[in-house]
Design a protein that fits this description.
Layout: H1 2-24, H2 28-39, H3 44-49, H4 57-94, H5 111-124, E1 129-130, E2 136-138, H6 139-142, E3 161-162, E4 172-174, H7 180-188, E5 193-202, E6 214-224, H8 229-244, E7 250-254, E8 260-270, E9 273-283, H9 285-290, E10 299-305, H10 307-315, H11 328-331
Parallel strand pairs: 1-5
Antiparallel strand pairs: 2-4, 3-4, 5-6, 6-10, 7-8, 8-9, 9-10
Bound molecules: phenylalanine.
């Protein structure tokens, strides 16, 4: 029994020294030394275990559970210190209070939004209101009310994306231009009207550096008594100077759009070349009649600008497809 007592005493002592020692450890490396010393293959625990084969069955019954307990205690001790240590370590590694804080990255407005705002602001300063319209249109507004009947060859100018929503009354499509809003606004309002309508348009087109199948337009419409072509020219000229600079030159040439008469396009002189940026004209009498206006009483002008084209000129963008490619290297260059 003396033997048993001294073995139990040894177990007690081992537990005590092991736990004292581990509590005084401060370094990670100390913990590993401790593990080798107490739990290692030739460590204190296994040399104590060795006595099991030399003792009697009666002694085993007493000593065995105690040794098992000791083993569990030591393993527990090790695990809990290891956990503590790694948390401390993480804290020490990752938290440097002398580091400056991380910047929160700011988004910027999309370049299309920026140019649309700039162009709309130019018109706003001339008394125009801003209005938005629907991207899904009916054949009636996109074509018929704009003097483009079904059999008119001018329909071929627009590569149309028809929608599978046809009912008895309407054929639906993604609008090919913002001009349908001319008719919608005139139907709902009485002159005088001065409005610009920015928005998305869609055409069934192959894309290349200057063509996208999804793009924006800014429609403009001014209707009143005695509006003349000189007002059209003056307004668009003023817009060009606001956007491109006060000495910007512009050129008007005849062009054809079924919903205006006469029709023009306007180019700006840019890096030595004339570049077309919009179509315009005096609102066609048939369009006025179609929405219930008397063309002998009212007249007006309309125009359609491609804002991406304007932005390409201003910002030296070579490929219109950049606007929808979602490439941050491109987008982050535009600071509002
Ligand atoms: N809607 C025409 C287009 O898409 C542009 C335009 C608008 C022309 C208004 C004249 C008047 O090409």
């Amino acid at each position: 029994m003396k033997n048993t007592e001294s073995i139990l005493k040894n177990i007690e002592n081992l537990k005590k020294s092991a736990s004292d020692e581990i509590s005084n450890n401060s370094q990670k490396s100390d913990l590993e030394d401790w593990r080798i010393k107490y739990l290692g293959r030739n460590g204190e625990l296994s040399s104590l275990m060795k006595i099991m084969k030399d003792i009697s069955p009666d002694e085993k019954r007493i000593i065995g559970p105690k040794l098992n307990q000791l083993k569990n205690d030591l393993n527990h001790l090790f695990e809990s210190f290891q956990l503590n240590n790694s948390q401390t370590q993480k804290y020490v590694d990752n938290f440097d209070i002398t580091l400056p804080g991380r910047n929160i990255s700011h988004g910027t407005l999309h370049p299309t939004t920026l140019i649309i705002r700039e162009i709309c602001d130019a018109f706003r300063s001339m008394g125009f209101q801003i209005h938005e319209g629907n991207e899904i249109e009916t054949e009636k507004y996109n074509f018929d009310l704009l003097n483009i009947p079904d059999d008119h060859p001018a329909r071929d100018q627009w590569d149309t994306i028809w929608l599978n929503l046809t009912n008895n009354e309407n054929n639906y499509l993604l609008r090919t231009h913002t001009s349908p809003m001319q008719a919608r606004i005139m139907e709902k309002n009485n002159p005088p009207i001065r409005v610009v309508v920015p928005g998305k348009c869609y055409r069934y087109e192959a894309t290349d550096a200057t063509h996208e199948w999804e793009f924006h337009q800014i429609e403009g419409l001014a209707i009143d008594k005695k509006i003349s072509f000189s007002e059209l020219k003056g307004t668009l000229y003023q817009m060009a100077r606001k956007i491109f600079g006060s000495d910007q030159q512009v050129r008007f040439r005849c062009d054809f759009f079924p919903f205006v008469e006469p029709g023009v396009d306007m180019s700006i002189l840019w890096e030595g070349r004339w570049i077309e940026i919009l179509g315009a004209g005096m609102v066609h009498p048939k369009v006025l009649t179609g929405v219930g206006y008397d063309p002998n009483e009212y007249s007006g002008f309309a125009f359609g600008i491609g804002p991406e084209r304007v932005s390409m000129l201003k910002n030296k963008i070579k490929d219109i497809r950049n606007f929808h490619a979602n490439d941050l290297r491109f987008l982050s260059q535009f600071v509002n």
